[in-house]
Amino acid sequence: MALTTAPDPTRRGPGSGRAHSARRGPGAIRHSEGLAGYVFLSPWLIGLMGVTAVPMLLSLYLSFTNYDILTPFSEVEWVGLANYERMFTADPSYWHAVRVTLTFALVAVPLKLAAALGVALLLNRAWRGVGLFRGLFYLPSLLGGSVALAIVWVNMFNRDGAFNSLLSLVGIEGRPWVNDPDWALETLMVLAIWQFGAPMVIFLAGLKQVPTELYEAASVDGAGRFRQFRNVTLPMLSPVIFFNLVLETINGFQGFTAAFVLSNGTGGPVDSTLMYTLNLYITGFTELQMGYASAMAWVFLLAIAAITAIFFSTGRFWVHYSDGEDR
Amino acid sequence: MHPATSPTTDTPAGRSHGTPVPRRRLLRGLLAATVAAPLLFGAAACGDDDGAADPSAPVKLSIFWWGGDARAKLTEDALALYTAKHPNVTFETTWQANQGYFDKLATLTAGGNPPDLFQIDDNYLAEYAARSTTLDLTSYQKSGKLDTSKFPESLWQYGVVDGKLAGLAAGENTQGLVYNKTLLIKNNLPEPTTGMTWEQHIAWAEQVTAATRMPGTQDPSADYKALWVWLRQQGKDLYKGKELGFSAEDVTKWFDLWKGARDRRATPTADVIHEGNSSDVTKQLVVTGKAATSWVWANQMPDLKKNTKDELGVVAYPGDPSAQWARASMYWSVFKGSKNRDVAVDVINFLNNDPEAVKLLGTDRGLPSNLDLRRVVSDGTTDQAMKQSIAVEAELTQKFGPSPQVPIKGHSKVKSELIKAAENAQYGRATPAQAAAQFVEACKSAIA
C-alpha cells in the first residue's frame, strides 16, 4: 500500500519540499506519507474491521459450534466439524439448494452476458437516438435486487398476470409460472437476464476501445462481418468479457432477494427456488441454527473463491491483453 | 502471573497493610477483584429489580408485537392507559407484520437488545423457553402479581413449558373454518355446520364447485393445524413428549383424503392451493375469491372480513369438535434478562385483567383470557365479524377437549416440512405415501 501511494520524489514542488526530502531521504517520506494514507483510510479500515472482518472471523468460530442465536455466546458449545459433516453427509435439502443455485448460475449467467454483449453490439453504432436506448436498456439493472421489482415480477408471471394475458392474445394458455415448481426458477432466471444493463455498459465501453484500424485491416484482408467479430472483436474484448464473467458469476451465486420475495421467504413452491443464500438464511434465522448456517456460509465463500480461481487459471488461454505485454 | 512478582509492580496497598501479606497472593487477589467487580456489579444491577427499587422511578419499557394497523392502534391506546395510571412508565413500541417477525426477534435477542416484553405464539414458545430466553412467570402467578384466577385453567396452562410459565395467553382462539356466505346464499347452497364429517365436508365442497365454479374448499393438507385436529380425532397427536405423535401411515391417510378431494375437484389446483398456503391473512383463498372456504383461526375473522366485500361465516373444522381446544392465540412473554421485569409483568397483568384495557383491546388477539371480562366484551361488541367469531368459540367452549402440549423445539421446521411434502403430493410429484414418508423422515431430524 505504502509503495503505491508514495509518489516519485522528483515530482514534488520546488523549494522547501525538495530540500526537506533531500535531508530526510526518500524512505522517511514514504513512511510519513504512508502513515498519512492510513490515517485517511482509517474510517474505512475501522468499518472493514468492525463490520466485515471481525464478524466474519466470529462466524468462522461459530461454524464449529451449535450457536442458535438465542443462547448467549458464553454457553455456546464447541462441536468440532459436526456442522460440516452434517452438511456433506446428512442434509438432503442442502444439496438440493446447491443444485438449484448451480442450475440458476449455469443458465442465467451465460445468457445474461450474451444478451449484454448482443445489445452492446447493436448500440455501438452511430444511430439516432442510440443514447436513449442505452439508457432504457440500462434502466432495469438500476433497479437491481430491489424488492419492488421482484413483487412486480411475481404479479406479471402469476396465473392471471400480464404475461399470460399476452400469451392468451396469441391463443396460448399460460401457466401459473411463479407458482409452478417446474417454472418458478426459470422465472427468476428471466428476471436476472433482463437486468443485463450493467455488463452491457461495460461491454460498450470495451467496444469503444477496439481500434478501428484493426477492422479496416481486417476488411482489407477480406474478412466479413462475422469473421471480424470472431477474430477482432472477441479477442480485443476478452479482458472485458473475463471481468464481466467473474463478476456476474459471483452475483449469480449470491442471488437472494428475488427468490425470497417470490417464495415468501420459503424457497417454494416445493423448494424449487431454494437458492443457497436463501437456504442459509432460513437455516440461520428461521430454524435458529446459526452455527450450521455459518458453516454453510464458509463453504460458500470457499466454493466461490475456487470457481473464481478456476476462471483466472483458464483466463490465460483465452484472455488477450493488448497493452504491450504479449500474453 | 509471574511478572507480577517483579519488585517494580509493588503496590502502595501492599505497603500500607500492617500485617505483611505475601505479595504474590495480594496481587492475585487484586487481580481477581478487578475481574470480579464488574461481574458482581452486573449481577447486582440485574437483581435490583426485586422490590427494593423506587416504584416511581421512570421506566421505559420496550415492547414488540406482530400485527396490522388496527392491532397497533388498539395496543398503543391500551398502553397509553397504563401510562396514565403509572406516569413513570413509558413505552417504546415496535410492531411489524407476522412475516419476518420471529427473524427480527431472534436477531434482537442475539444482538443483546431484546425487547422487555414481546408477543410470541406456540410455534416459537418452546424454542424460546427451552433456551431460557423467557422469564418464568410462575412466581408472579403464585404471589398474585399476575392474576390468572379468572382464566380458564387449560388456557394459562397452554403457556407452560417444562414446568415453567413461559408466556401468558394474550387471548384465546381455536381453529375456524371460514366460508363465503354470500356465495352460498346466492347459489342456494347449504352452509357448512360444526360436526360435519370430513367426508361430508369434501362432498359439500364438491357440490359448491359444481354449482358456482369456485372451488369449494382450500386443500388444507399442508396446514399443520388442520392435520393436528384430524390427528386428535384419530386418537393421535402432533407431539407426544419429545417425539412425534403420529406415524407415516397416519400422514398417508391424511394426504390420501385430500388427493381424493382434489380428484373430485372439491379443491383448487395445486398452484392456487400453494398461494393459500401462505400464513398471510390477505392471501387466504376465501378473501381472494379463489375458494369458498379457508382454514384459519377463528379470531382472524375480523381481519379476513376487512379483505373482502362478501359476508363470511365460521364453523369448527370437520369431525368431532372436541378435538379442538382453547388455544392461546398468542402470548406475552418477558425477556429473562430484562431490567424492568417486574414492570413488564405488571403490564401483562394490566393488559389481561384491567376492564378498560381489555375493552379497548377487544378480540383482536383472540377472546379475552379473563372470563369475566370476556363476557363484558362480547356483550358490548358491535363488529359483526367479531360477534361471529365470539359466537363460534362460545359454542365450542362447551365441546372443547383437553389442550395438547405446547409444540416442541423444531416445530417451525416441522411446519415448513409439512408444506413441502403436501405440495409435492399436490403438484403430483410424489404419491401420498412417498410424501408422507419424506415428511416423517424430515420431522425426525428436525426435532432431534
TrEMBL record, chain A:
Subcellular location: Cell membrane
ABC transmembrane type-1 domain mapped to chain residues: 98-311
Region annotation Disordered: where it falls in the sequence: 1-28
Keyword Nucleus: no
Any single Gene Ontology cellular-component annotation: plasma membrane
Keywords from the named record: Cell membrane, Membrane, Transmembrane, Transmembrane helix, Transport
Matches recorded under SUPFAM superfamilies: MalF N-terminal region-like, MetI-like
UniProt membrane topology term: Multi-pass membrane protein
Superkingdom as given in the UniProt entry: Bacteria
Single biological process term from Gene Ontology: transmembrane transport
Spans traversing the lipid bilayer: 38-64, 102-123, 135-156, 183-207, 295-319
Major localization class: membrane
Recorded family membership: Belongs to the binding-protein-dependent transport system permease family.
Protein name as it appears in the record: ABC rhamnogalacturonan permease yesP
From TrEMBL, chain B:
Residue ranges, annotated region (Disordered): 1-21
Listed Pfam families: SBP_bac_1 (PF01547)
Matches recorded under SUPFAM superfamilies: Periplasmic binding protein-like II (SSF53850)
Biased composition annotated in UniProt, kind: Polar residues: 1-11
Origin: domain of life: Bacteria
InterPro entries: Bact_solute-bd_prot1, SBP, TAT_signal
Name of protein: Extracellular sugar-binding protein
Organism: Micromonospora lupini str. Lupac 08
